[in-house]
Fold this sequence. Notes:
Largest sheet: none
Helix content: 55-70%
Number of helices: 4
Structural class: mainly alpha
Number of strands: 0
Distance between the termini: 51 Å
Amino acid sequence: xxxxxxxxxxxxxxxxxxLCAAIAADQGGTDRLSSARLQLIRRxxxxxxxxxxxxxxxxxxxxxxxxxxxxxxxxxxxxxxxIGINRLPKNVTPDLRDYLEAKAAGQxxx
Length: 110
């Protein structure tokens, strides 16, 4: 959740929410995530927004603290490893074999 003092309509806030939603979807949906995993997703999204802001400054030719950027990047890698980087789509349809077996079992019971 964003603080009560944050408007939530700014570019960074929108990007943060978009990242949280996208990562949760990649993990199979918010309903399948533990509270701890949701917290990790929030930390990752926050760090990713900071990294993107630093990268914008780099592209503009501005100076950034290389140590800070490197540490942030390493932290994002560690958090991503904990969250998992493989996409886990929701299984919303049974496979054909399970469907046919369930249908056959239902007919035998009748």
